[in-house]
User: Which sequence fits this backbone?
């Protein structure tokens, strides 16, 4: 399985609309997209989004198995998940 280098995408309107999630995406060719706004988020949050999208290469949905896989790599992922829920829209607007 080939894993490409994560590609940074600027969060323009077109990309945001096309992305399943505002913060990252995993395409059918396992191309990972990460919203560049995450550069100004806490490093742990950026790490969480990268791990989240990489886990989608293995599991393409948000089943309990998927979240267990994320937790395997980042036991504390819920803190970052919560941070994005709380501050994500402000991060979007502030750019
Ligand atoms: Zn996801």
Assistant:
């Amino acid at each position: 399985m080939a894993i490409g280098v994560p590609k940074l995408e600027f969060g323009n309107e077109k990309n945001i609309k096309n992305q399943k999630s505002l913060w990252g995406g995993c395409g059918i060719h396992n191309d990972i997209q990460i919203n560049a706004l995450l550069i100004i988020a806490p490093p742990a949050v950026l790490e969480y989004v990268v791990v989240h999208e990489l886990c989608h290469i293995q599991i393409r949905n948000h089943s309990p198995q998927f979240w267990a896989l994320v937790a395997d790599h980042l036991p504390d992922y819920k803190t970052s998940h919560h941070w994005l829920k709380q501050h994500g829209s402000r991060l979007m607007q502030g750019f």
Observations:
- Residues 21, 52, 56, 62 surround zinc ion (CB under 6 Å).
- The helical segments are 13-18, 43-58, 64-73, 77-93.
- The mean pLDDT is 84.
